[in-house]
Amino acid sequence: MNAESKQPGDATESATPDPTDPGYERHLERSRTMWNRWSDWYTMSERDFEPIREAAIDRLGLESGDRVLEIGCGPGVNFALVREAIGETGRLVAIDYSPEMVAKARDRIERHGWDNVEVHCADATRVDIEGSFDAAVATLSMSIMPDVRAAVGNVHRHLESGKSFVVFDLRPVPEGPARIANPFLRWFLRWYANWNPDGDVLASLRAVFTECTVGETYAAGTAYTVHCRKSVSPEE
Description:
By secondary structure, the chain is an alpha/beta fold. The chain has a single domain, classed as 3-Layer(aba) Sandwich (Rossmann fold). It has helices at residues 22-38, 42-48, 50-58, 79-86, 99-112, 148-158, 182-193, 201-208, and strands spanning 4-6, 67-71, 91-96, 117-121, 133-139, 159-170, 211-218, 223-229. The protein has an eight-stranded mixed beta sheet with strand order 1-7-8-6-5-2-3-4, sandwiched between helices. The radius of gyration is 17 Å and the shape is globular. InterPro entries: Methyltransf_25, SAM-dependent_MTases_sf. GO terms for molecular function: methyltransferase activity. It comes from Natribaculum luteum.
């Protein structure tokens, strides 16, 4: 386990995506095409990463009645874990940009009869959801955002003061001789998942959130969980 914390001077500053940037729109289109294609095979990832996803969600400290925002929900692999924690009185609102993933997530909701779970097909960097949330989670999704900083800022804006955002994601090998594999790893993540090589998830989280702590790391540090907390405003 590797733990570290960062407290920037201005935690409320966030970036705004530029919808006129052709690179931004191309990235979104690649993500839509790619994740529509992988939607039929996501169950492999669902099984392989289940213990890690469960540990990440446990870090949120969810309680019955909580309202939770999920970014990049895919086919809804986290829904059962979150709903078990928030109960029937809570609310889970999920976002994904792939229509096929959203369709599968909605099928999962319908099969289980979860009337307090909803899914929106939308760009997480720009979507505006009514109300605020007690927690937010993103598993294997932040590093494929077309503008990581804007996506983090949008999550921060939707969170209540003092509440948590937990991210489980992938990155190049951070240190040691295994870094020799990073060029291949970057290529593979770009090819397989439309990973954003210009986006730095940890740097974006630390720039926006006052408190940001890396917890569990896996596979030479290429997979990691980070727990962020939104500061409490002086008026509260």
